[in-house]
Specification:
163 residues, alpha+beta, eight-stranded antiparallel sheet, 4 helices, 8 strands, globular
């Protein structure tokens, strides 16, 4: 019995689950699932700076997994953010990261708006798929990440199953 339960847990952890959820509202008027080309068209002549790019190889037998992280601070000034990044997963906008000094104040302001509720993990949740949470990166910079929870779950499930 113990081994059967363990096998069931291992199987469920390592199962890749593509996102089938609809786009969700992110910060700055952007919606998740937008392609890099659609975002570039909105940003116009302003060029972003590529921070990280991990394109998928057609020779790879695993399901597609590519990642693009770009700095759009010059193109998209948002509030008191000192840096603005867009994260794309499989050609879909998955999240927007804002480096802000006062993350607690930023999240408190969103909570005051009334359309956000604190989730069990401490993140703020608007609709079912939009999560807004804060952390500190490896450079000790405080940030707030607006993300599509469905796309984040798809990425993590791919990593669990194939990485």
């Amino acid at each position: 019995m113990k081994w059967g339960a363990l096998a069931l847990i291992a199987t469920s952890v390592a199962c890749y689950r593509p996102c089938e959820g609809p786009p969700t509202q992110l910060v700055g008027g952007f919606r998740s699932h937008m392609t890099p080309a659609a975002v570039a068209q909105i940003l116009g002549s302003c060029k972003w700076h590529v921070l990280e790019s991990a394109p998928w190889s057609k020779e790879d037998p695993r399901p597609r997994y590519d990642f693009l992280k770009v700095d759009v601070t010059k193109c998209l000034p948002i509030g008191k953010a000192t840096r603005v990044e867009m994260h794309f997963f499989n050609d879909r906008l998955a999240g927007i990261l804002l480096v802000v000094q006062d993350t607690k104040g930023y999240l408190a302001q969103l909570e005051k708006e009334g359309r956000w509720q604190r989730g069990p993990d401490g993140s703020l949740r608007g609709d079912k798929a939009t999560h807004v949470w804060s952390a500190v990166n490896w450079k000790n910079e405080p940030y707030v990440l607006w993300e599509d929870a469905c796309l984040a779950e798809e990425s993590l499930s791919w990593i669990s199953a194939y990485a």
